[in-house]
Amino acid sequence: METVRWIISTAPEISLRLAIAIGPLLGVAVPYAVGNVLLTVLGPIVVAATHTG
Hints:
Blueprint lengths: L1 H25 L2 H22 L3
Helix pairs in contact: 1-2
């Protein structure tokens, strides 16, 4: 469970660094698209991991 918490806490930073690293290679739209997909995938995981009910 500690690994999941670490992934959740560092996912935004990892996504940002990835977008900055590949941004110049792919143009403007692709990093935003990748970020949107990552957030869409990670959203339910974050909610499920932090839900205490």
